[in-house]
Amino acid sequence: MDVAIVMKVMKIAFANLLDTLVIIAGDGDFKDMVEFVTETLYKQVWIVGYRSSFSPSLCEKASPG
Fold first, then answer.
1. SS3 23
2. Closest to 9 measured CA to CA, from 47, 36, 42, 39
3. What CA–CA distance (Å, rounded) separates 8 from 50?
4. CA nearest 34: which of 58, 8, 65, 2?
5. What is d(CA 37, CA 43) in angstroms, rounded to the nearest whole number?
6. How far apart are CA 12 and CA 35, in angstroms?
7. pLDDT, tens digit (0-9, with 9 covering 90-100), for 1-38
C-alpha cells in the first residue's frame, strides 16, 4: 500500500497539482517521498500523528509543532 500512495503523490506532483502534502502516518517508508517533495519540488509537507509512533527517520524530516 505504501508504494501505491507514493506513486499517486508522484503522479499528482509531476502534473503540477500539488501545493502541500499532508501525511497522516508515521511510517518511515515515506521518508524518501518527503525528502523528494520538499527538497526537489520545494513543496510543503505536513506530517500528522503521534510522535511516539513516528519512525525515527521520518522524525528527522518533521519539524516540531
1. strand
2. 36
3. 24
4. 58
5. 6
6. 16
7. 788 999 999 999 889 999 999 988 888 888 899 999 99
DSSP characters over 8-22: HHHHHHHTT--SEEE
Which residues are registered as beta bridge partners of 22? 46
* DSSP code at position 46: E
**pLDDT tens per residue across span 45-64:** 998 888 787 888 776 655 54
Nearest to 49 by CA among 35, 31, 34, 65: 65
The answer to whether the pTM exceeds 0.70 is: yes
